[in-house]
Amino acid sequence: MNADVINSLAKATQDGFLPFPKIIGELMAQGVEYYHVDFVRGSFTFYSTAGSAVIAPLSFEGLPSTVATWDANALKAAILDSQQHGQEFRQFCERAVLAGVQGYFAFLRGQRVTYFGCGGDQHIEWFPGVTSSDV
The whole model's pTM is what? Predict the structure, then answer.
């Protein structure tokens, strides 16, 4: 993995310069197996198939503090707005945090995202067009 390229992709995600499918393709081309978005620490961590990791800042100023209450319906609505209406990443992050998301793992080869809250609550979202029987 090229740390400079990974950091530029993290920044492009935050700035909304590239659509999600393009970001995923570029990350996979860099050897990223999965990544973790940590709203508590304000960071992304990208992991390669070879065991290396690149940490990049999640640098949204004014992002709400994480909350303890899990609201699965609010999270699903935020995901749907991103998938179907092109919601900006910052707005998605704000809504996810307010729904109780502490962070999430995006598994690129597995084509799914696992969101989690501080009480162990979880929601698995398949990439658009993918189901568990496809992987």
Answer: 0.91
